[in-house]
Amino acid sequence: MTKHWADFQYEIYLNGMTGAVPRLPTDLTRLEELTEQRLGPGPVGYVAGSAGNGSTARANRAALERRRIVPRMLRDVHERDLSVEVLGRPLPAPLALAPVGVLSIMHPDAEPAAARAAAAQGVPYILSSASSTPMEQVAEAMGDGERWFQLYWAKDREVTKSFLDRAKASGFTALFVTLDTPLLAWRPRDLDQAYLPFLHGVGTANYFSDPAFLAGLAKPVHEDPNAAVMHFVGMFADPAKTWPDLEFLRESWDGPIVLKGVLHPDDARRAVNAGMDGVVVSNHGGRQVAGAVAAADALPRVVEAAGDRLTVFFDSGIRTGDDIFKALALGAEAVLVGRPYAYGLGLDGQAGVEHVIRCLLAELDLTLALSGHSGPASVGAEDLEEEPA
Ligand SMILES: Cc1cc2nc3c(=O)[nH]c(=O)nc-3n(C[C@H](O)[C@H](O)[C@H](O)COP(=O)(O)O)c2cc1C
Ligand SMILES: O=C(O)C(=O)c1ccccc1
């Protein structure tokens, strides 16, 4: 499954001969500002925002920036292959789109457009439980594109069971269970703007289309939408859950299960004991615990604890191809990217998301080559140096 990602670089140069420049910048760190200019402060505040004074989000970036690549020369890198096998599935590159809820605040085409972009580029799409489109419609939009389902583990067992059954029937092959959001964190940017999409019923599509959820309402959603929203807010997550509760998920889902939001090596060991298949080392892009450890600093310790018993994914702060390289060098098997593709969607719908995927992977391909690697497998700790703090 070799795809020549760096061909995108030549395509851009050659288009330049006719005077055509890319519709969006190829430095993806510029997308946030452009999206804010286009969509205004409310929606972008929600996507860009993070917990507390933003210290975790900044620490995520700093921990990646502090690690520097030490390139090696004369290693024959003329043929490269970014493909990997993850959770038993062949992927064209070590990248998936992170679950990002409420995407209709970015673009009316929302999750189906992001999912189509992922499918067009061959990259897995992780659909959020809090999507603005029901999972069946997203699955249909993707054709046979690889899709994984992110579970917000609801208080109500019947709702959780119903989500799992629907996800299975819609062709989602792996389950990502998010553990770091039993409550929404203190997010000043949203509080100061009094902007929370769910309060307007955005991001509730899977719930409002679910028979088990609807059975818990006194009146149909259209007769009392506020009551339906409050029912969602009260049950989408459950701060009372503990490790033994995972048994129920293990029994109810026969594909791979990955725990998202693991930062401590002991939690990785518990994941192994609970029969899980993987973890995502993540602090939710700095949106949950203000003051949390940077995800990249937590990664090597979790990788060590996981050994070869878990597939270790990484997210929180990936903005460029060289960030992906660094995550691989710290031991991740694949990365998820969140905000950059949400901005790509906001700026140019499906094409914007495809632009983000192609830029990330073209840059990763070139970073690998210029550092002396023809694929992800040979990248390791010896490729990085840490700048003194
Ligand atoms: C607007 C927004 C909504 C998100 N919604 C979800 C969600 O529904 N479920 C989930 O597990 N993670 C969610 N996340 C977290 C992402 O999956 C991911 O962990 C994070 O965005 C990674 O950091 P990055 O944005 O720096 O790439 C959300 C993130 C953002 C920015
Ligand atoms: O905003 C988030 O980070 C998030 O994870 C979320 C939680 C509930 C609904 C939608 C998104």
UniProtKB/TrEMBL annotation:
InterPro entries: Aldolase_TIM, Alpha-hydoxy_acid_DH_FMN, FMN-dep_DH, FMN_HAD, FMN_hydac_DH_AS, LMO_FMN. Its cofactor is FMN. Pfam families: FMN_dh. The keyword Cell membrane does not apply. FMN binds at P99, V100, G101, S128, Q150, T178, S282, D315, S316, G317, I318, R319, G338, R339. The active site is at H284. Glyoxylate binds at Y46, Y152, R187, K260, H284, R287. Residues 20-389 form the FMN hydroxy acid dehydrogenase domain. It comes from the Bacteria. GO terms for molecular function: FMN binding; oxidoreductase activity. Belongs to the FMN-dependent alpha-hydroxy acid dehydrogenase family. This is Oxidoreductase.
